[in-house]
């Protein structure tokens, strides 16, 4: 039916949800995916703060703007990879995203565009919301509008699950990166130790300071208030959080002496690195395949609203926008170094 699907994404919670839906759809029809990001080139506008930032602080500009494509697309690619779907990622700089989407569809020979919409009354300035209608009008191939944000019957639940999944994708991108490092060390290839340290540092900071506490304080807690059936699974996930943190701490210490390590110690480090990365991916799989579907069945709209408030602005201070933003920048730096 369809063999090559173009999936535009802009990194918003809605497009994270769309990426998940697109991957499910591609699996059903046996198609491959090209994830597409239209980079708005923020610095092109002389009235924009970005132009000034590019001049006075190029590193910050790179983290905030120009690294965005790689950051967003690497997470989408992980979603497809986890489902065994063949995918590519493409970005184009354009101030007219709908034209870039249509041009890429032609150029790459895609036979379906799969996207979402913020709805006809959206003036949020978010790329895909304002562009969907223009794509629908101009497309020469079918366009599947997977969801319209304004019609979402469970916005709080979808917001929370999109945030959780997006954070899982960041962790997974880094975990796959660790596996690449492990292979490099095993084959005695030159390895960028500073990047390896940044990746371990990111995992040490982000999951333990933001992601795990959020899961335990809100998602797991609310599920346990509604049912005792999932207690053994939640206990296991909490154990994995603690053991993962301990394993990571040991890896961060071990890397300091890796330069003078014996061949056996090096092999032991590689084994631990691989096993740690594998455990992270397994943990994410358990949460997405077991706890999240269970939560969507047993939690009530008011539970999701409480969780969504805690994750949003003015919610629980530990998960404030500023904290999220500093982790996003760190992830962007890592995604763009790989
Ligand atoms: Fe977790
Ligand atoms: Fe998680």
How would you portray this structure in words?
Helix 4 crosses helix 12 (321-337), helix 8 runs parallel beside helix 10 (263-298) and helix 8 packs across helix 12 (321-337). Mean pLDDT is 84; it is low at 120-126. The chain is globular. The protein is built from twelve helices and five strands. The protein is α/β, with parallel strands linked by helices and 338 residues long. One fe (ii) ion binds next to helix 8 and helix 10. Residues 168, 211, 215, 284, 287 line the site of one fe (ii) ion (FE2). This is Universal stress protein. Residues 161-295 form the Hemerythrin-like domain.
Rg on CA atoms, Å: 21 Å
> How much beta, percentage-wise?
5-15%
Distance between the termini: 35 Å
Spatially, the strands of the biggest sheet line up as 3-2-1-4-5
Average predicted local confidence, pLDDT:
84
Q: What is the tally of helical segments? A: 12
Could you state the order of secondary-structure elements as H and E?
EHEHHHEHEHEHHHHHH
By CATH, the superfamily of the largest domain comes out as nmb1532 protein domain like
Q: Unreliable segments (pLDDT under 50, ≥5 consecutive)? A: 120-126
CATH topology of the largest domain: Four Helix Bundle (Hemerythrin (Met), subunit A)
Could you give the count of β-strands? 5
CATH class designation of the largest domain: Mainly Alpha
CATH architecture of the largest domain: Up-down Bundle
Structural class, please? alpha/beta
Q: Describe the biggest sheet?
A: 5 strands, parallel
Bound ligand species: fe (ii) ion
Instruction: Give the total of domains.
Output: 2
Shape label:
globular
* Approximate helicity band: 55-70%
